[in-house]
Amino acid sequence: MERGISLERAITLVKIEKLNLSLEPVNLENAYGRILGNGLKSKVDDPRFDNSAMDGWAVRKEDCSPKENTSLEIVGTSQAGSSKTFTISSGQACKIMTGAQIPKGANAIVMIEESEIDGDNVIISGPARDTYIRHKGENLLKGKKALSIGNFMDPASISLAATMGYESIEVFRKPVIGIISTGDELVMPGSKIKDWEIYESNSFGIAALVQKMGGEAIRYDVVADSLDGLRESLNHAVKNCDAIITSGGVSMGDWDIVRKLMELEGEIIFWGVDMRPGGPPIFGKWSGIPIFGLPGNPVSSHVVFSMLICPWFSASFGTSKNQSPNLGKQVRVKMLDNVKGAKGKLCLRRIRITSDLNGLVATTHTHQGSGNINSIVVHNGLTLLPPGTDANVGEIIDAFWFN
Ligand code: AMP
Ligand code: MG
């Protein structure tokens, strides 16, 4: 077991325990947010055939004078979705709609706005442009790979997959993460609460973080501070989950049962990371599956998830930290308030990042206690202050900007 390690080292250790996720098919309708498990080659050329980018007239460029109006004989109308094809010869034009096939013999398009019909003829008053013709395969050739393994299926990727002819794609199975909150003081929001109790909040926030990272969360019942209760809950969860996240009970207190049970019966890989907030997380294995023991303070559990569990998800999907899904990105910000760092620890103060004319700037607005979840709500980022450093007004520092 390693103790009190740097965040960098902790990330290295959790990545070793990344999941090996199998693939499953998903229809495009349900593909949003999924991670592509195979590269996709186009089944068709895009465009499929030469077609018009404008509603207008398909013409021969050499027939149209750039200086004076030209009268051309109309041969018909080429419509999108129609199998009818046309041919034009010198002195002729074919009316054409956006997306319709280009008639044989035509090499340019005149916009409809720059024309007037005169009996069986059309009077062309604007330029005939070859750039208004979209050529077969100019975007994508049949057989060319356009989406790579690990691609986050965002709306544009989904459209592209459909353009390429896929109705269903192979994606990585969603990792199933069990979430277990511990603490005698916890009661469910909405239920009756006694003077010495608090509403359980971490499991809800952590479940949302899991979903945001592309996982499926199972929230288990809160476990009281008892070794037997926790053992039973963990043994139950390992049957259905790829990994477990617990909340609370990882510090030095007498009732910190997650730490105690892991010491007695689990496998601890590390305990404690040099960061504030979020110092005491435990990482290890229970019955062979990864278990992240997050501190109970709500800010700490969110911050540790963002810094440590997020990279573990990326490693499991084979994506990089700058690829989606992620919870944010590392940026440089200019501080508009002073912030105090922490001795010997990476300091993650909550900041609100906005942009001004010169770039990103950051301010702080609330009490920074690790129990104050509202401090994450009213801010949108974290400082990444190296151990033992403060940041004064005007200084430019590294920060994590939540998305
Ligand atoms: P612990 O890590 O168990 O020592 O808890 C640290 C602090 O976080 C205590 O004030 C707890 O009451 C609080 N806490 C622990 N678990 C939760 C939870 N699931 N939801 C909200 N607060 C919690
Ligand atoms: Mg506790």
Reported for the largest beta sheet, the result is:
7 strands, mixed
Q: If you average the pLDDT, what whole number results?
A: 97
Query: How many structural domains can be distinguished in the coordinates?
Result: 4
**CATH architecture annotation of the largest domain:** 3-Layer(aba) Sandwich
The global form is elongated
User: What's the CATH class of the largest domain, please?
Assistant: Alpha Beta
Percent range for β-strand residues: 25-35%
Q: What is the β-strand count?
A: 28
Strand neighbour order, sheet with most strands:
1-19-21-22-18-14-17
Give descriptors for this structure.
403 residues, alpha/beta, Molybdenum Cofactor Biosythetic Enzyme, Chain A, Molybdopterin biosynthesis moea protein, domain 2, Molybdopterin biosynthesis moeA protein, domain 3, 4 domains, 7-stranded mixed beta sheet, 6-stranded mixed beta sheet, 7 helices, 31% strand, binds adenosine monophosphate, binds magnesium ion
If you had to describe this structure to a student in words, what would you say it looks like?
- With 403 residues, the protein is of the alpha/beta class.
- It folds into four domains: 2-21 and 173-317, MoaB/Mog-like domain (Molybdenum Cofactor Biosythetic Enzyme, Chain A); 24-43 and 143-172, Molybdopterin biosynthesis moea protein, domain 2 (Alpha-Beta Complex), CATH 3.90.105; 51-134, Molybdopterin biosynthesis moeA protein, domain 3, CATH 2.170.190; 328-402, MoeA, C-terminal, domain IV (Beta-clip).
- The chain has seven helices and 28 strands.
- The chain has helices at 7-16, 155-163, 202-212, 227-237, 257-265, 298-317, 374-378, and strands spanning 2-5, 23-27, 40-41, 51-52, 56-59, 70-78, 92-96, 108-111, 115-118, 121-124, 133-134, 145-147, 168-172, 176-181, 186-187, 198-199, 216-219, 243-247, 267-273, 275-276, 282-286, 289-294, 328-335, 346-347, 350-356, 359-363, 381-383, 396-402.
- A seven-stranded mixed beta sheet has the order 1-19-21-22-18-14-17, sandwiched between helices. It has a six-stranded mixed beta sheet with strand order 8-5-7-6-10-9, with no helix packed on it.
- Strand 25 (350-356) and strand 26 (359-363) form a beta hairpin.
- Helix 3 packs parallel to helix 6.
- The longest helix is centred in the last third of the chain and has 20 residues, at 298-317.
- Residues 181, 183, 185-186, 198, 200-203, 247-249, 251, 253, 295-298, 371 line the site of adenosine monophosphate.
